[in-house]
Amino acid sequence: NTNVWKVDKYVDKLESNPHIVDAAHFLRENEVVALPTETVYGLGGNAENDEAVTKIFAAKGRPADNPLIIHIADKVQLDRFVKEVPEKAKNLIDAFWPGPLTIIFNKKEGVLSEKATAGLSTVAVRMPDHPVALALFRECGLPIAAPSANSSGKPSPTTADHVVDDLNGKIAGVLDAGPTGVGVESTVVDCTEEIPVILRPGGVTKEQLEEVVGEVRVDPALTNTEGDARPKAPGMKYRHYAPNAPLYLVSGTREFLQRLVDEKRQEGLRVGVLTTEEHSPEFAADVVLACGRRAELETVAAALYDTLRKFNQVDVDVIFSEMFPTSGVGLAIMNRLQKAAGNKIISE
Ligand code: TXA
Ligand code: MG
Is the ipTM of this complex over 0.90? Predict the structure, then answer.
């Protein structure tokens, strides 16, 4: 069974914390352990070792063509495996690290496991804003490859329980520091081109990036869901996050959504509704789950994956979800919901 190591990030002395020392020991032995970050839990392994990286892919059931993010605790670690740090990347690092921003650089060959970068000439790097993650990375002294610690295709884990639900017995342990804060993954921004390109919307918003570096583009493949445009982040081409029951996003009034619910229930189906605290009292369905507060989209992001996972613990045949504005962290929320729904949208 997988060890669950509880660490109180506010109370425990983190350097020399025995659980963190144990976890670092496993990492140096090229075993894999799950760790908290400010976005979601990650599944960490030594990024310079093929064996460790192979274990990450195996535990998750992750396709080998989907590269991992390399996590560091200190900017000086970049030099070891990154070819150059362009000016705009420097400014983004100064503004957002540690934090939910992953930057794509050109890679120095021969340092990292080729499997970690899926053989690409670029590498994704981030410094998470979580005291337990940073203490662990310092303790083991290695760059740590860490995808989200879910089974491939499931919603990313925002609690240690989610990690255990997916990976129990498949990994050495999980450092449990309670629920993560941001709730959606880091923003992935490609800085190998003159104008930075968002490959995955996430915890740092497009608006925040633009304040620092001016114009920022969004990979057109992310919004063009019909066409055959290939996303530049290999991971963005996979269906993801989907609950077991089919999920439909509903564009229109709440009355319209309720009518869809009523129709399905008349057919004898059990119906779920994904809404927010403001609107949940208005819906009559078999299961109504409130995902944060619409007035503060950060709370929706924080609750999103737990809510999607909860729909698998209740008995529903179909789920209808409200939609969200795409400003701020709403861009990441809608991106994940569209993936969870397989782009099924019903418009009034
Ligand atoms: O918040 C996060 O970023 C979490 C925590 C654990 O740090 N990690 C995470 O990793 O979400 P993962 O593996 O689930 O997602 C990494 C994404 C994938 O879409 C992958 O294709 C993309 O980053 N990626 C990694 N390296 C890349 C590269 N060199 N070029 C383009 N995309 C890359
Ligand atoms: Mg993931």
Answer: yes
Element (H, E) at 89: helix 87-96
Sheet with 287-290, edge to edge strand ranges: 287-290, 271-275, 318-321, 247-251, 345-347
- Look up residue 45 and give its two tokens: 């392994």
Choice from 102, 200, 304 to test ligand 1 binding pocket (greatest atom count within 8 A of CB) = 102
Q: What is this structure's pTM?
A: 0.97
Q: Is 233 annotated as a binding residue?
A: no
How far apart, in Å, are the Cα atoms of 162 and each of 25, 236, 294? 24, 22, 24
Would you tell me how many other CB atoms lie within 10 Å of the CB of residue 195? 12
Pocket of ligand 1 (CB under 6 A): 37, 39-40, 42, 66-69, 100, 102, 104, 117, 120, 122-124, 126, 128, 146-148, 185-186, 188, 199-200, 232-236
CB 82 within 8 A of CB 107: yes
pLDDT digits (tens, 9 = 90+) for 193-224: 999 999 999 999 999 999 999 999 999 998 87
Please give the DSSP secondary-structure letter assigned to residue 197: E
Number of the ligand 1 atom closest to the C-alpha atom of 128: 7
